[in-house]
Design goal:
This protein is an alpha+beta fold. The chain is built from five helices and twelve strands. The strands form two sheets. Strands 3-4-2-1-8-11-10 form a seven-stranded mixed β-sheet. Strand 1 and strand 2 form a beta hairpin. The chain starts with 14 loop residues before the first helix and ends with a strand.
Length: 210
């Protein structure tokens, strides 16, 4: 259960935008961390996000970064009249900034970060046009059957969709992913498509699980 405290109001669109301004652009080259950020969808629908970025310059300020993120969190919660986002901690270790946030649900992650992020039933995703019946699937579970989207809809599979080069974890057995994604031995799915330095992906990627 999240315990989110009241803080000062300010309008800042997203944690991603804030980190882009305070960290990536200060490097002069716009390169993100080679240590990937990660997002874990938990069983209760809460989203745990660990954002990581290079923090090597002497003029970077952890205090300013933390203040800006907390103001963004405050503004989102105040706007929606509920405690939907919480920043648990912001730290710098070995020249890497790490920010841990919790979101009440996938919709809050998407809205707060202004990013494509969907978690729910495969049927709803298909009904909303997020996937099509002819969407190609890559089977990553040897126990899963070769199947098309319509078959998996009938079997009540779930799907996570995003457009960020994240490490993804879902509360279930991963059966299928989109082309280019890799299921690691530890259960995380690498959605970087071989290039974790990019900020967003050209097209959405997905993880189908049950």
């Amino acid at each position: 259960m999240m315990t989110i405290r009241n803080k000062t109001k300010c309008r800042l669109t997203s944690i991603a935008a804030f980190l882009l301004i305070t960290i990536f652009m200060l490097t002069g080259c716009g390169q993100a961390s080679t240590t990937q950020s990660s997002v874990e969808l938990q069983k209760d629908g809460t989203v745990k996000a660990e954002i990581r970025a290079s923090f090597k310059k002497d003029y970077y300020s952890l205090e300013e970064m933390e203040k800006g993120i907390r103001l963004a969190v405050d503004d989102y919660n105040d706007t929606h009249g509920a405690y939907l986002v919480e920043m648990e901690e912001a730290t710098v270790r070995d020249d890497w900034a790490e920010v841990l946030l919790y979101f009440r649900k996938a919709e809050d992650y998407a809205a707060f970060n202004n990013e494509m992020f969907y978690a729910g039933s495969l049927k709803t995703a298909a009904d909303e046009g997020l996937v099509t019946l002819d969407t190609p699937l890559v089977k990553v579970d040897p126990k899963a059957a070769d199947a098309a989207v319509n078959t998996l809809i009938a079997e009540d599979w779930q799907i996570l969709i995003c457009r960020e080069p994240l490490l993804l974890k879902v509360p279930g057995r991963v059966g299928y992913v989109s082309n280019g994604l890799r299921l690691r031995d530890d259960g995380w799915v690498d959605a970087s498509l071989g290039d974790p330095s990019r900020i967003t992906l050209e097209t959405p990627v997905f993880v189908i699980y049950k």
